[in-house]
Amino acid sequence: MDIATMLELLGKGALVSLEIFFVTMVGSLILGLLLCLVRMSKFVVFRLLAKFYISVMRGTPLMLQLFVVYFGPYYIFNVNISPSYKLMAVFIGFVLNYAAYFAEIYRAGIESIPIGQYEAAKLLGYGRVQTFFYIIMPQVVKRIIPPVTNETITLVKDTSLAFTLAVAEMFTIAKQIAAADRKVTAFVLAGIMYYVFNLLVAGAFAKLEKKLSYYR
Question: pTM for this structure?
Answer without folding.
Answer: 0.91
